[in-house]
From TrEMBL:
A Pfam family that the UniProt record links to this protein: Nitroreductase
Record keywords: Flavoprotein, FMN, NADP, Oxidoreductase
Similarity-based family: Belongs to the flavin oxidoreductase frp family.
Species: Marinobacter koreensis
Entry-linked Gene3D superfamilies: NADH Oxidase
Protein name: Oxygen-insensitive NADPH nitroreductase
Nitroreductase domain residues: 9-163
Length: 245
């Protein structure tokens, strides 16, 4: 495979970083690479907050569930879905704008994710490591207050960036046959394929932890559908002016 594909397939989440700063010119190039991602109708519906203040980083680390690497990484970014800038631009151009539609929420969220993944790939191509921090949605209102986010802007996730001080294995993914369907959604083999993948993940966790972690993919999903539902997000997004029409 070519080097780009090999790079993409080698992604790992890094949670331990060296005490080494990312040079500013490289950091800005990563952001420019992010801006080159596809964007719906050229809206570019995102804003990235580079959290430099160490006290704010510590606060966000706690709000995100006590993830210390938020404070320890060379750089920490919060990727925000932003419909404020583009809506106001259209309004200044004479449009009778409509705010707060569900489609605007989808567009801004997708734009933000695509932009962030470009940053991630660019960072890894330069030997950097990263970890996405979805935990900022545990307390999104507090994070929004710290970052002084206006209406029509919401924090989607954070990203730790830095030089890796660990070398974890690449975590296995579901087999292609489970996620790639031909012509229509055919789930007749899904139960079998998931069972096989659970066995593979069970072996992976045992090997990674020296036999100290007895779990698999399906077991790891349980919190997502029980304790990590984040029901507060609906009211939070409404309060931000998103997804109400």
């Amino acid at each position: 495979m070519n080097p780009t594909i090999e790079l993409l397939k080698s992604h790992r989440s890094i949670r331990k970083f060296k005490d080494q700063k990312i040079p500013r010119d490289l950091f800005e190039e990563l952001i420019r690479a992010g801006q080159s991602a596809a964007t719906s109708n050229h809206v570019q519906a995102y804003t990235i907050i580079h959290v430099v203040n160490p006290d704010n980083r510590k606060k966000i680390a706690e709000l995100a569930g006590g993830q210390s690497y938020v404070a320890d990484a060379s750089d920490f970014l919060v990727f925000c879905a932003d419909m404020k800038r583009s809506t106001e631009a259209a309004e200044r151009a004479g449009a009778d704008v409509v705010r707060g539609t569900t489609e605007q929420l989808v567009v801004a969220s997708v734009d933000t994710a695509l932009m962030a993944q470009n940053v991630a790939i660019a960072a890894e191509s330069e030997g950097l490591g990263l970890c996405y921090i979805g935990g900022i949605r545990n307390n999104p209102a507090d994070v929004a207050d710290i970052l002084r986010l206006p209406e029509h802007v919401y924090p989607v996730f954070g990203m730790c960036l830095g030089y890796p001080d660990q070398n974890p294995e690449v975590k296995p993914r579901l087999p292609i046959s489970a996620i790639l369907k031909e012509d229509y959604y055919d789930d007749r083999r899904d139960e079998e394929l998931v069972a096989e993948f659970d066995d593979r993940m069970h072996r992976y966790y045992l090997e990674r932890t020296g036999g100290n972690k007895e779990t698999n993919w399906s077991e790891q999903l349980k919190p997502l559908f029980t304790t990590k539902l984040r029901p507060h997000m609906r009211d939070f997004l409404k309060g931000r002016g998103f997804g109400v029409k």
